[in-house]
Amino acid sequence: MTIDAAALSPGTTDRSSLTSAQDDLATRAKKDGVRFLLAVFVDLTGKPCAKLVPVEAAAELQEAGVGFAGYAVGAIGQQPSDPDLVAMPDLGSYTPIPWVRDGLALVHCDPHVEGRPWPFAPRVILKSMLAKARAAQLELFAGAEVEYFLVSRDAQGKLVPADALDVAERPCYDARGLTRMYEHLTAVSSAMNALGWGNYANDHEDANGQFEQNFAYADALTTADRVITARYLISMLAEQRGMTATYMPKPFADRTGSGMHFHLSLWRDGASLFPATDADEHGFGLSEIAYQFMAGILDHAPGLQSVLAPTVNSYKRTGATSTRSGATWSPRRASFGGNDRTHYVRIPDHHRIELRGGDGSANPYLALAATLAAGMDGIERRLNPGTPGTGPDAPQRPELPPTLLHAVDALGADAVVSGALDCAGPGIADYFVALKREEFFAWHATVGTWEHDRYLTAF
C-alpha cells in the first residue's frame, strides 16, 4: 500500500495547503486502498471516540460529518436531552493505519453542535488557544515523549510486565529487554516513519515493561493529534501480540511511572523565537521571550498540573520518593535548570524547553492549550524565571500539588489556566474541576488493600 506522507510531514502547519485531490477525502482514501475511516475525537479525559465510516460514505462524512449522542460519549459537557454532537473531519489529519487493520484510515474531527464548534471538545479548545496565539503573532511548536508500559496478567490475575524476563532492578536501556520486544517496537516505528512522523529512537525506559518511542516535533495541533493516534496505534499493535499497552502514570508502586514530556518553542514567520541573539543573563542561550514564556509556566505550575497530571494515579508518580531503580524522574517542585532531568522545566539546548510535569494520562490538547496560556501570560507580564536550580540562591519555587484534589483547587484559583480551558466558551473549567473532584472522591470512598493491611487488626 502506498501512503502519501508528504501531507503529513513533521512541521506541517498549513492544513489548507493540500491539493484538490487531497482535499477530497473519498479520492484520497480510495487512492490509498482505504475501505473504512475512523472518524475520531476525544473527550476531556482523553478517551478516543469514533465511528467507523465506509469509504463509500467518505464524501458525506466530509460534507456533513457524523453524529454522536454526546452524553453517551462521556466527559464532553452534554446531557441526554442535548442535540447530537456532529464530528467534522479535519482533512489535514487524515492518516492511513493499515498496520492496525488492512484498509483502515483515521481522521481527527472537531465536534460541532447545531453547526458550531462544541466548546467542551479538547481539540476545539486547543484550536481556540492557538488562534489567540496567532493574534499575538506567535505559533507554538511541540514535541511529545510518549511513555507506556506493556503489561499482561499472570495466572493469579496480577498485573505484571508482559515480558516475564524483564525483572532487572536497573532495566533502563537494556538491549536484551529491547530486543525481546523487537516485533512490537519495530512495527510501531515502521508505522510512524511510513506516515512521515520521523521516528528517531525507541528505548526501554527506567521501569520493567516500560518503553518510549519518539517522533519529530511539529506544530502543536499536529503533535496533539499524533499523540492520540500514537496511543491508539501502540495499543492496537500491542493487543495483536497479546499484550496491553497502558499510559497509566503509575501502574506499579515500586517502579518508575510514565511521563509525557513536552518539548516547546515559539515561532514567528517561520523562525524560532527561542535562540538568543546576544548573551543572556542566565547563560542557556535562550532569548528574553523564551525566558518569559518559561517563567509563566513556572508561575502557573500548580494549576497546570491539573491538566498535565489529571488523574488520582498521577500523584502516586509525582509524589514518589523512591523506586527500584533509585530515581523517580518526576519533579516535585516548579524549578528549572539546564540539561538536568530533575527539574520541572529542563533546558536541553537553546532551541527549546522541556516541560516534565506531564504524565501518560494527560490529554495533549488540554495540556498544550493550558501551557500555552501560562507561557503567554509570562510574556505579557514580562516575567523573569530568576535563578535556576533549587539551591539557596534560587527563588522559592512552588511545590507541585500532592494530590489531584489539590491540583484542581489550584486550577480553580488560577484565572489564566482556567481561561485556557474556557477559551472556546464559558463553563468548561468549572465542569472539568467538578469532573476531577468527583474522580478524587470516588477513589477516596473506595476501601482497598492498604487499609485492610493497616487497620484490620490495628486496634
Task: Describe the fold and architecture.
This protein is an alpha+beta fold and about 450 residues long. It has 2 domains: about 5-115, Glutamine synthetase, N-terminal domain (Ubiquitin-like (UB roll)); about 130-450, Glutamine synthetase/guanido kinase, catalytic domain (Creatine Kinase, Chain A, domain 2, 2-Layer Sandwich), CATH 3.30.590. About 35% of the residues lie in helices and about 20% in strands. It has 16 helices and 19 strands. It has helices at about 20-25, 25-30, 60-65, 70-75, 120-135, 175-180, 180-195, 220-240, 290-300, 300-310, 315-320, 365-380, 405-410, 415-420, 430-445, 450-455, and strands at about 35-40, 50-55, 65-70, 85-90, 95, 105-115, 115, 140-145, 145-155, 160, 200-205, 210-215, 220, 245, 260-270, 270, 335, 345-350, 350-355. The strands form 3 sheets. Strands 1, 2, 3, 4, 5, 6 and 7 form a 7-stranded mixed beta sheet that branches. Strands 8, 13, 15, 16, 17, 18 and 19 form a 7-stranded mixed beta sheet that branches. Strands 9, 10, 11, 12 and 14 form a 5-stranded antiparallel beta sheet that branches. Helix 13 (about 405-410) packs antiparallel against helix 15 (about 430-445).
